[in-house]
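User: Sequence recovery, please. Input:
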């Protein structure tokens, strides 16, 4: 930049007189107009600051801003992350523009001290650093404002929007005073700058008074209750991990403030509210910055985007400069702001440091305790008790695994005994035994008894009984060790938080800790699975009775009895011819028997022949039946044994 004079200089460049000042302008040496010439302003026209500012236009813009703020406050971080990114960007734009405009005016005023262009001039005329600082301020503070807006109640919203008329009144009065003595291009800027300084202080006083006298002065019984109540207001902010974590910090701050105010008197509460409400100065300052954008004349934005100039009416911004500014803005928004915001969000999601830091901060104020029954213990006590329970259960688990292995081997031996039963079933002895019991009406009972007798061979569950006793012994020892361990843990961690702020983070009943159902039920399940107890020989008998019951439930024995009846009838009808031939052969044999005679020998021979033929027929039919039905009969019995196996092991596990 340099200072130039429109008319030909007649004396060296120096400090201009008051008359000459009106002909000086400050020009960016690197900026040109559309025609490639320097942006000199040779005329002074009445500045737009001299025109009265319309309250109606200001109100319309402010109402639109109010509607936008309310919508963003309700939607912020409750849905998708992109809503957070877009809301922060849009909300920060007017704040950044206000700051950049104020900085531009200050820069123009500073450059009046230079009489020519040099190294110092170039150093102080640059604006990028200050522009970046204002953009960062706008983005960061907008983010925190939108988080805080989500927790506002009706009174707080009313106080916040009260900034609109108060800012207008402060600005109007200041502008009237400043316009009397200040250069035209500085009037709006100075009025807005002083309004942004005074209005937040006025608003803070209004906030303290109105909130102190009309607010809901809830008295919380403890600091933990106050913080939990404030956390409930941000419980739905789950659309962003970053917002969720920051909202927890805000809830902690609001909870401390609410609890402190509830413990003080009316006068002390006002002082406390004023002290804790200083954070609202940032909110009110940014609100005033946004409102300032509604009062900056449109032509003044040429100073923001164009070359530095103190002309009453800045020149229009060249098309090339507009294109360059648009390109830089798009680059910053899409390739700096958006990726950086996403990176921070991903970092918060993957790093628990922020949550751990907050939890540590909360422990400074709130003592976190766990409640077991009616007593309080240090945080982490229940976790220690759970570890002790896991250790005790590990001992029991080892015994149960061994017991399950023994049970599988026992049931395998039972399955091996099935073939012995089937060998008896498909034999002449078995056939004639069943016929004999069929004659006296005890066929089903006899078949059940015989099956039970075959399955009990070798006492299949003898080793299981020993494992039962071992498991019960281990359970007793584990139970006693667990009782001793939890007693020591509870004695070491027992606290008395009465009289201080505390928060119950976890609660369990005393019975669940001292008598865990998993341990207490093990012995009962072992006894149930093994029958009346683990005495010698009992388990095998009990298990076999359950298997027999399942076989009876499948009607396997009844079907076998009915089949026997049909076989008897078929053998009677089908063996008549064979018996006649046997009788003739027997008679010929009996006639040669001494002392009996031909008639008696014929009788005896006939009987012998009939028996031989009948037995032969029975043997043949049994083999035929075995070939057709044995595999199916065996599958039915094994199915019952497998059902019993599953039930037995299920009872061990509860």
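Assistant: Recovered sequence (654 residues):
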């Amino acid at each position: 930049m340099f200072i130039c004079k429109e008319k030909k200089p007649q004396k060296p460049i120096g400090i201009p007189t008051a008359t000459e000042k009106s002909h000086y302008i400050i020009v960016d040496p690197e900026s040109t107009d559309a025609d490639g010439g320097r942006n000199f302003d040779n005329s002074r026209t009445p500045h737009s600051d001299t025109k009265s500012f319309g309250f109606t236009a200001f109100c319309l813009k402010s109402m639109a801003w109010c509607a936008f703020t309310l919508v963003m406050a309700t939607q912020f971080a409750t849905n998708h992350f992109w809503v957070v990114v877009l809301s922060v960007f849009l909300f920060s734009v007017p704040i950044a523009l206000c700051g950049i405009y104020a900085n531009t005016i200050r820069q123009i005023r500073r450059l009046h001290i230079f009489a020519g262009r040099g190294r110092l001039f170039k150093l102080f005329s640059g604006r990028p650093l200050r522009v970046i600082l204002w953009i960062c301020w706008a983005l960061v503070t907008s983010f925190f404002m939108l988080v805080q807006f989500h927790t506002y109640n009706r009174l707080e919203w009313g106080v916040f929007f009260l900034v609109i008329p108060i800012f207008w009144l402060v600005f109007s009065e200041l502008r009237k005073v400043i316009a009397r003595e200040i250069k035209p291009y500085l009037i709006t800027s100075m009025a807005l700058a002083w309004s942004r300084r005074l209005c937040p202080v006025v608003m803070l006083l209004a906030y303290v008074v109105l909130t102190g006298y009309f607010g809901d002065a809830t008295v919380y019984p403890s600091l933990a209750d106050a913080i939990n109540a404030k956390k409930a207001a941000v419980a739905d902010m789950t659309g962003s991990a970053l917002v969720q974590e920051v909202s927890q910090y805000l809830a902690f701050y609001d909870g401390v403030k609410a609890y402190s105010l509830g413990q003080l008197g009316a006068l002390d509460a006002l002082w406390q509210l004023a002290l804790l409400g200083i954070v609202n100065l940032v909110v009110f300052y940014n609100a005033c910055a946004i409102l300032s954008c509604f009062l900056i004349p449109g032509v003044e934005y040429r100073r923001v985007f164009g070359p530095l100039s103190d002309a009453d009416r800045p020149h229009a911004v060249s098309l090339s400069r507009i294109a360059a500014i648009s390109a830089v803005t798009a680059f910053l928004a899409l390739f700096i702001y958006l990726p950086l915001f996403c990176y921070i969000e991903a970092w918060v999601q993957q790093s628990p440091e922020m949550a751990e830091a907050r939890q540590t901060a909360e422990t400074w104020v709130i003592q976190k305790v766990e409640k077991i029954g009616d007593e309080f213990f240090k945080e982490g006590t229940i976790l220690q008790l759970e570890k002790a329970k896991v250790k005790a259960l590990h001992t029991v688990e080892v015994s149960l695994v061994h017991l399950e292995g023994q049970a599988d081997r026992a049931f395998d031996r039972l399955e091996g005994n099935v073939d012995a039963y089937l060998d008896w079933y498909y034999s002449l002895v078995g056939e004639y035994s069943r016929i004999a019991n069929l004659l006296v009406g005890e066929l089903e009972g006899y078949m059940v008894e015989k099956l039970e007798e075959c399955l009990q061979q070798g006492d299949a569950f003898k080793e299981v009984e020993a494992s039962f006793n071992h498991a019960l012994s281990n359970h007793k020892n584990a139970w006693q060790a667990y009782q001793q361990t939890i007693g020591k843990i509870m004695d070491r961690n027992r606290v008395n938080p009465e009289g201080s702020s505390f928060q119950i983070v976890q609660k369990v009943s005393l019975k669940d800790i001292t008598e865990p159902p998993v341990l207490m039920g093990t012995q009962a399940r072992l006894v149930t699975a093994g029958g009346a107890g683990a005495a010698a020989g009992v388990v095998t008998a009990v298990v076999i009775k359950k298997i027999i019951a399942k076989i009876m439930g499948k009607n396997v024995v009844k079907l076998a009895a009915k089949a026997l009846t049909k076989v008897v009838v078929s053998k009677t009808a089908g063996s008549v011819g064979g018996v006649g031939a046997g009788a003739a052969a027997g008679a010929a044999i009996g006639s040669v028997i001494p002392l009996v005679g031909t008639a008696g020998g014929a009788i005896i021979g006939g009987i012998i022949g009939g028996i031989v033929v009948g037995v032969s027929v029975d043997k043949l039919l049994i083999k035929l039946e075995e070939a057709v039905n044995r595999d199916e009969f065996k599958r039915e019995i094994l199915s019952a044994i497998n059902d019993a196996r599953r039930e037995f092991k299920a009872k061990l596990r509860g």
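Residues 1-52, 531-536, 573-579 have pLDDT under 50 and may be disordered.
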